[in-house]
Amino acid sequence: MASIYQKYSQLLAKRPLITNIITTGFLFGSGDYLAQTLYPSSHKYDYKRTLRATFYGSIIFAPIGDKWYRLLHKVNFPFSKTRISPSTSKVLNTLTKVAVDQLIFAPFIGIPLYYTVMSILEFNDNPLQVAREKLHAHWFSTLKTNWVVWPTFQLFNFALIPVQFRLLVVNVFSIGWNCYLSSVLNHKHNSLIENVTEVDEEEILI
Question: Is 128 in contact with 198 (CB distance < 8 Å)?
C-alpha cells in the first residue's frame, strides 16, 4: 500500500494533470457501472453511457476540479487579522472554504455542468432543451442531497488532506455520489426526450 502511495505521489508531482485525468475518468466510469448494476434502466448494459461518464470525469471535471481545489487552498480569509488564536483562525478558514465550495461551486458550477455536458454527450436532437428539462426536474433535489452528503466530507478533506490529493480523495468518495448522479440523470430519460420531441413537433406545426 505504501509503494502505491509513493508511486501515485511521484506521478502527481511529475504529471499532475494527466494523473488526475486518468484517475478521475476511471472513478466516474466506476460510479456509472455501479449505477447500472444496482439500478438498471434497461435489460442491457449501456457501454456508451459509461464512456460518457468516463469522458466527463476525465476531460471536463478533472481539470476544473483540480484548479478549484488549488484556488481554494491559496485563498486565506482575513480571520488571522482579528483577535483570535491561530488554531481558531485555521478552523474558521476551513469552514469558510467548505461554505464557498457548497454554496458556489456545487449549485452553480458542479451540478449544472454535469447535467448540461452529459445531455450534450447523448447527442439528442435538442440537447440543450433536454439539459434544461433535467436541470428543472432534478437540480434542487440533487443540491439538497449534495448538502446532506458533502459538507461533512469536505470539512475533513480541506482540514486534513494535502491539496494535491484532494481531488483523488473526492473522486474515491464520489464513486457512490456518481452512482447517484448517473441514476438521476438517466431516470425517465426516454420520457424527457419524448416531451422535448413533442414540443418541437408542436412548434413546427404552429
Answer: no
pLDDT in tens, 31-62: 999 999 988 877 889 999 999 999 999 999 99
Locus of grid cell 440533487 = 142
Instruction: Take residue 186 and report the three cell numbers written for it.
Output: 438517466
DSSP 78: G
104: amino acid identity, one letter = I
pTM for the structure as a whole: 0.83
DSSP structure string for 125-166: SSHHHHHHHHHHHHHHHHHHHHHHHHHHHHHHHHHHS-HHHH
Do 158 and 166 contact (CB within 8 A), yes or no? yes
Q: How many whole angstroms separate alpha carbon 8 and alpha carbon 96? A: 30
